Structure formats: structure tokens, C-alpha cells
Amino acid sequence: MPTCIARSAAAGASERGGGGPMKSVATELVIDAPPERVWAALADFGSYGAWNPCLRRIDGEAGPGQSLRIAIRFGFLPPILFRARIDRFRRNELLGWRAVFLFGLLEGRHWFELHPLDAGKTRFVHAETFSGVLASLFIALFSGVIRTSYEAANFALKAIVEQK
């Protein structure tokens, strides 16, 4: 069962960005497959539309510094199209990107972590941190639907990886 939290990061100069404290949504679950198999599904951006109910499309390559065009959908909300740049990349361990919205008033840093567990399993973390002057309002309004969307994506990933 995934554990999910929506929280504010601890206050501090290094944890502030774009005019306000960072706010986070984080989910996790255990996938019965090794990190390499989970990574293969995550790095195959072209297949997201077939299985991911949240990240509907990602155009670009999974690699350090790569530019992406992303279509995301949170529950009942209309799709959001945006550009991002991969800023976290360690094959079979970490994949993440940064996107800026509303002329810099909101910034999102989205990432996936893969932690190897015994018996060939993976603890999968799917999270995003929001910063900027609109971060508090954004997280207050949308953390529930974002968390639910991330959980749905996590379970979809688990299903496709475990069936292989």
C-alpha cells in the first residue's frame, strides 16, 4: 500500500525557491521487480500514453539535461501542456525534471526514485516539490488531486512492470 504525504519542506534559505517555501507531494509503493525493469518503463517516454493516467505524453529523451514537452492530467482538471528540463538523472536510480509556470510564479520539480529492496523488489518514490509565490495556494487547492493522480500512475506502473 502506498504511503502518501503532502507537506511543507522545513524552512531554510536553501529550501526556499522563487519567493516562498517549497511544498511537496510524495507517494511511494513497492514494486515486485528490480530497479532496472522499473527504469526501463520509466525511461520509455513514448509508451506513457498507453499506461500512465497522469503523465499522458512526454516528448523527448530520458537523459541528463534533455528538454521535454509534457502533457499531464490531474483527475478532473483539463490537461496541462508544458516544457521541462531533466535535472536529476542516475540510471536505474533517479529521474526528474524542472518546469516553470505562470512566468516564474510557480516552479515544479518532479522526480522518481528507485530504491532496491531484497528479493528483487523496488521501493518506488514519485514526488514533486513546488516553489514560488503561488506554491502555497497551488498546493492548498490541488494537493489532493495531484496525490491521487500520482497514486494512479504508480499503480499503473506497478501493473505493467510486474506483468513482464
Task: Give the tags.
164 residues, alpha+beta, 8-stranded antiparallel sheet
Q: Work out the strand percent.
A: 35-45%
Give the helix level as a range of percent. 25-40%
Our measurement of the CA-to-CA distance between the termini, rounded to an integer number of angstroms, reads 21 Å
Number of strands: 10
Total number of helical segments? 3
Strands ordered across the widest β-sheet: 1-4-10-9-8-7-6-5
Q: Which sequence of SSEs, written as H and E, runs from N to C? A: EEEEHHEEEEEEH
Largest sheet, if any?
8 strands, antiparallel
Description:
The chain is built from 3 helices and 10 strands. With 164 residues, it is of the alpha+beta class. A hairpin with a 3-residue loop joins β7 and β8 (94-101). It is globular. The relative contact order is 0.25.
Task: Itemize the secondary structure elements and their pairings.
Elements: E1 3-8, E2 16-17, E3 20-21, E4 23-31, H1 35-43, H2 48-51, E5 55-59, E6 67-72, E7 80-90, E8 94-101, E9 106-117, E10 121-131, H3 135-162
Antiparallel strand pairs: 1-4, 2-3, 4-10, 5-6, 6-7, 7-8, 8-9, 9-10
Helix pairs in contact: 1-3
